[in-house]
Q: What sequence folds into this?
């Protein structure tokens, strides 16, 4: 059908307004579909229970927002380290600029720098790790996506939620959600007074276990040991289960957006089909002439199907490409209770969107193509 491409393009050009409106409408709908799919992919990546999880989150029982979880430090740290099967413990002080759902959540994690290097696989893109370790009065490492979203630069201060830090590095991570965090020194956020020997309070403890298969059993032991020794009880869960609990409201909303994506694809099909049907009606006599000079019904069907496919794919490319470019230029994150869900624009998302555009284009052209192919020549000429 490629040798008939000039003919198809000429037909589309002959009705420029209708063609542009159809391609534009398809592009807008596929743009919306791509954004919906990207947040669903981010949620799946964050909470997928099928992946092996060697991290446990120890959080204060009956608390939800990080600002109200207060676990003593270092006494709880010492108790958790002694549990059999625990490989490492990372105490974390969480400070968030907005505990409710927001598209611009900034989350600070105050951690001991030496332990951070042991348990995180961070790739420093800019700055120096030793400068962060040595600067105890507000040095910070900023995730790549947060830095791009906020225009944060190495060597300059960054202030939000009443906290001012000096950016010593920008990092990438193998965990997409971590690229929206700001790591700083634990003592900087705790701000202990000189000579103060009593427990301070962190938000949670991240526990790394030696055997992920025993994670649930170790979580029960941790909670029981703290319940036996301390008055502030804890609730320990695998990290992905903790994420699902923290963003449970968002999970339902994002799940509903799946229907929005399906509606977008359906409307694209209706839009393209309507355009092709109108084009077929405009060219009834033209198709009869083509059949008279030897074009078969199958050829006419192929021409109409190609026109539908071309319009749908062009709109899909514009919409999906627009989504990918936007998320590359300005990464987006949806946060709630200190947990961030990234809008993930992956090659798989682009391939999935283009595949749907192709399928919709074929489906939209079947009926008008079939009608044009089976039309009676004499009746059409009249």
A:
């Amino acid at each position: 059908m490629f040798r008939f491409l000039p003919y198809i393009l000429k037909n589309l050009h002959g009705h420029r307004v209708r063609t542009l409106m159809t391609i534009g409408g398809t592009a807008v709908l596929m743009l919306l579909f791509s954004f919906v799919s990207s947040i669903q992919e981010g949620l799946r990546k964050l909470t997928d229970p099928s992946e092996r999880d060697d991290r446990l989150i120890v959080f204060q029982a009956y608390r939800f927002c990080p600002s109200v979880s207060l676990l003593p430090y270092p006494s709880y740290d010492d108790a958790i380290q002694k549990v059999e099967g625990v490989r490492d413990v990372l105490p974390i002080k969480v400070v968030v600029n907005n505990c409710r759902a927001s598209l611009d959540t900034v989350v600070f994690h105050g951690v001991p720098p030496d332990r951070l290097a042991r348990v995180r696989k961070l790739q420093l893109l800019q700055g120096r790790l030793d400068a962060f370790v040595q600067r105890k009065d507000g040095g910070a490492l900023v995730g790549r996506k947060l830095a791009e979203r906020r225009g944060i630069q190495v060597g300059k201060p960054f202030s939000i939620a009443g906290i001012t830090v000096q950016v010593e590095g920008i990092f990438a991570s193998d965990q997409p959600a971590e690229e929206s965090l700001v790591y700083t020194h634990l003592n900087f956020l705790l701000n202990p007074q000189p000579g103060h020997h009593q427990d301070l309070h962190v938000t949670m403890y991240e526990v790394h276990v030696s055997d992920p298969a025993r994670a649930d059993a170790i979580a029960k032991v941790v909670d029981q040991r703290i319940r036996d020794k301390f008055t502030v009880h804890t609730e320990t869960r695998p990290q992905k289960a903790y994420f699902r609990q923290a963003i449970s409201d968002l999970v339902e909303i994002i799940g509903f957006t799946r229907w929005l994506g399906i509606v977008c694809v359906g409307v694209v099909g209706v839009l393209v089909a309507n355009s092709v049907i109108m084009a077929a009606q405009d060219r009834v006599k033209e198709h009869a002439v083509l059949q008279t000079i030897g074009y078969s019904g199958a050829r006419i069907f192929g021409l109409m199907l190609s026109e539908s496919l071309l319009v749908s794919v062009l709109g899909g490319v514009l919409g999906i490409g627009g989504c990918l470019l936007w998320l590359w230029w300005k990464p987006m994150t949806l946060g709630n209770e200190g947990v961030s869900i990234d809008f993930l624009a992956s090659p798989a998302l682009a391939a999935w969107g283009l595949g749907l555009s192709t399928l919709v284009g074929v489906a939209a052209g079947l009926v008008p193509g079939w009608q044009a192919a089976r039309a009676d020549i004499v009746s059409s000429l009249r």
Q: What stands out?
A: The chain has a mean pLDDT of 85. The chain has 14 helices and 14 strands. The longest strand covers residues 86-96.
